[in-house]
Specification:
Blueprint (H helix, E strand, L loop, with lengths): L1 H25 L17 E6 L5 E7 L8 E6 L9 H11 L1 E6 L21 H16 L8 E6 L1 H11 L4 E7 L5 H15 L3 H6 L2 H19 L6 H7 L4 E6 L7 H8 L6 E6 L7 H5 L1 H16 L12
Helix pairs in contact: 1-7, 2-11, 3-4, 4-8, 5-7
Length: about 325
């Protein structure tokens, strides 16, 4: 009883004195430079409708290979445009895969949502737009009966996890620099309280679950203020039972490798985590080059090219 009373008192103390800092930090945008690709003359310009009628812009790149192996939905990182998929997917295209990338609302050339300013955290709006992209691919005249693969970078990886958890047509997933909400937030909260509080005793006695509660309360407050919800990427990963390749930079100072490992540990089914030495956030391709392309192509060759046509599947989870 005494322990519970102490924790309750600490919760009220932290919430009263530091919740403003937390909500401000949660809404800060990252400082790294976001790549923007140049238009590919051979790409098919695509416009599709989101659930609420907004127009989303995408590009569909067809393989030059004689026979197509599969179709891959590319999940963009925060702030990049649809053509930024090209460097990541050039070897996939050569190997026989079509690639489709779409800009979510308020990003690139897609319609602006007057009630939504995107941040790096995945929201229900991002998820809805990715689901619209999946539906588009499954309804195209040249849709692949095997379904699709998913390749997501950073925020695009987290959004992909959420979309795939509810869509059996996503047969396998590759992510690079993906992150969850709570597995990312808790380490940052521990570091944050050391900056904003000189009360060392508080830092020593607060358990990990306490940071989780504080983070959840702060995230919900931000969500209410911004008119969105933040779906749990962690829960989505835990529901997946499909092949997964997670790529992460060993030198990532934004999403540290231990955060990626905590998210990876939740995944079920065949899975592999490749931590690229010396690579910073979203820089694994730059560092690893040929090996990066080779691993990604080999993964989709193993888990998408030879997949059977999509059949009705029981609900996962």
């Amino acid at each position: 009883v005494a322990y519970a009373l102490v924790m309750a008192a600490l919760y009220l103390y932290v919430r009263w004195n530091y919740m403003g800092y937390l909500t401000r930090i949660f809404q800060e945008k990252p400082l790294f430079v976001v790549p923007r690709g140049e238009k590919d003359a051979g790409g098919e310009e695509v416009s599709l409708k989101a659930d609420d009628g907004l127009t989303l812009r995408g590009c569909y790149l067809k393989t030059p290979a004689p026979a197509r192996k599969g179709v891959i939905l590319f999940g963009l990182e925060f702030g990049s445009n649809r053509w930024a998929c090209r460097p990541y997917c050039e070897k996939l295209l050569e190997a026989g895969y079509d690639v489709f990338a779409v800009e979510a609302r308020s990003q690139g050339d897609s319609d602006k949502d007057p009630n939504y300013e995107p941040l790096q955290w995945v929201t229900d709006r991002d998820l809805a737009d990715t689901r619209a992209a999946i539906r588009y691919l499954l309804k195209r005249p040249d849709a692949d009966p095997k379904g699709i693969g998913l390749f997501g970078i950073s925020k695009g990886g987290g959004t992909g996890f959420l979309a795939a958890a509810g869509e059996p047509a996503v047969r396998c997933i590759v992510t690079d620099g993906a992150y969850g909400t709570h597995t990312t937030m808790i380490p940052y909260l521990k570091r944050w309280i050391q900056i904003y509080s000189d009360r060392k005793i508080i830092q020593r006695v607060l358990p990990t679950w306490f940071y989780g509660i504080i983070g959840m309360v702060g995230a919900k407050k931000v969500a209410r203020n911004r008119g969105v919800t933040y779906p749990s990427v962690e829960k989505a990963v835990g529901r997946l039972n499909r092949p997964l390749l997670m790529i992460h930079g060993e030198g990532d100072n934004y999403i540290r490798p231990e955060m990626a490992k905590a998210l990876f540990a939740r995944a079920r089914g065949p899975k592999e985590l490749w931590v690229v030495p010396k690579a910073k956030h979203n820089q694994a391709l730059t560092v690893a080059g040929d090996e990066y392309h080779s691993r990604v192509v080999n993964f989709f060759d193993a888990h998408l090219a030879s997949a059977a046509p999509v059949a009705p599947a029981p609900n996962e989870g």
